Amino acid sequence: MxxxxxxxxxxxxxxxxxxxxxxxxxxxxxxxxxxxxxxxDHDLKTESDRQQFLTDMGWKVGEKYESCRQVTIPExxxxxxxxxxxxxxxxxxxxxxxxxxxxxxxxYSVKNYKNAKNSEAIKANLxxxxxxxxxxxxxxxxxxxxxxxxKK
Length: 152
Description:
By secondary structure, this protein is an alpha+beta fold.
């Protein structure tokens, strides 16, 4: 018969080590979960949803979208699409997940862009796939225009 004895000090040290490992595992799970969470978790199925989202982002827009068009995200990205997708990735989106898919782009006139030379030239674009926001931008359509993320 074999008997192993363990001192109480050893059990306390083991308990501390196990507790520390469990806490570390919990922190890692939270970090991985937060990193994987996209900002694309917005349901934008209705005009009211889209209006509310733009308001939440800090924008004043017209009562209804200016245009609504169907676009197919290309299977292979050109340099322009790669650059645009970098802007999307900075916002937590990734259009490469939607290559070959038909999406809807809603365009709104932005009424409160600070220092806009021509307020009619500032637009907000929301890219929606099956009622979910998958990307977007705020831009100026003037010749020397700009493009930025959705948040004001």
